[in-house]
Amino acid sequence: MASRATITAKAQIPLVKGFYEERSGSIQYVAACPSTRRCAIVDPVLDFDEKSGATATRSADGILDYIASQGLTVEWILDTHPHADHFSAAHYLKDRTGAPTAIGARIVDVQTLWKTIYNFGSNFPADGSQWDRLFAGGDTFRIGDINVAVMFSPGHTLASITYVIGDAAFVHDTLFMPDSGTARCDFPGGDAGTLWRSIQRILALPGETRVFTGHDYKANGREARWESTVAEQKASNIHVVAAKTEADFVRIRTTRDATLPMPKLILHALQVNINGGRLPEPESNGKRYLKFPLDALKGAAWE
Fold first, then answer.
1. Is residue 276 part of a domain?
2. Considering the domain boundaries, does residue 84 fall inside one?
3. Which residue ranges of the chain lie beneath pLDDT 70?
4. Disulfide engineering: 153 pairs with which of 131, 189, 198, 288, CB 3.0-4.6 Å?
């Protein structure tokens, strides 16, 4: 018979399923406790076509189909940060499952920043009330029998957090796959030095910790990948290896960021994502409208 210690150790290894969303290069996850069949959905995508303005729930429904096929029960819907390249499906999935939504507590800083950019009025609460739970660094909770620790991981955004679910760290826009490096830091509220320090905290986790990243852009034409380990990241992440100091990293990261165009959906997505994934309310004609500020961000596509 297996010892209690062995059973406990196994219970801390979640079953992780990734779902690649081709349009944005995003990976959505289901992390499940094998003993209780309870799970969390991490960073789900609401489909959006910027050319037609059409929204759809294909990606989120695919996750729900998988959950049903595996006999899982959704315990949490988790976002690591307010995304700049896709709409969050958190609100839609809460309606479908009844599970609570959560994000990092510093979302209130992002809301305050972007509320000004969009010129949202006093009717928009910048207090995080759009989510059921706001997590601070050091908070803990459970998914079934699995312990979850929250790490504050800013730099890409003011509000980014990492969920360490058993032996699996969901880092989203901090570390990419080793051949792709790290996330950009030139969005409003981003900071390369802060990202460097966040990465060092993640790399201090045990070397065998599985690292699940939130984007993959198929470097050098390879197939999409999204799982590595802390040891692999330390040994071969192109930005981690090249940067011996924080100053090195800031130089590498800011030089790289200066060459990148803004994500094509950043102004579309942030107004939805700082509202917990809620689309704008229908107007008098029954249609919903996005608000699009001009000259709101630095740089231009033709520079």
1. no
2. yes
3. 1-11, 298-303
4. 198
What are the Cα distances from residue 86, in Å, to 46, 68, 265, 266?
A: 7, 25, 7, 8
Number of alpha carbons in the 13 Å side-chain half-sphere of residue 228: 26
- Please say whether the beta carbons of 27 and 19 come within 8 A: yes
The answer to whether residue 184 is domain-embedded is yes
Strand partners, 180: none
* Residue 130 CB contacts under 8 Å (≥ 6 apart), including other chains: 274, 275, 276, 278
Rounded-to-integer distance, Cα 246 and Cα 234, Å: 15
Count of alpha carbons within 13 angstroms of residue 248, beta-carbon side: 8
The two three-digit tokens of residue 55, written as one number: 């929204």
The neighbour count for residue 299, using CB atoms within 10 Å, is 12
| CATH number of 65's domain | 3.60.15.10
pLDDT at 299: 57
Which structure tokens are listed for 179?
A: 């051949």
What percentage of the chain reaches a pLDDT higher than 70? 94
Task: Give the max Cα distance, the chain.
Answer: 67
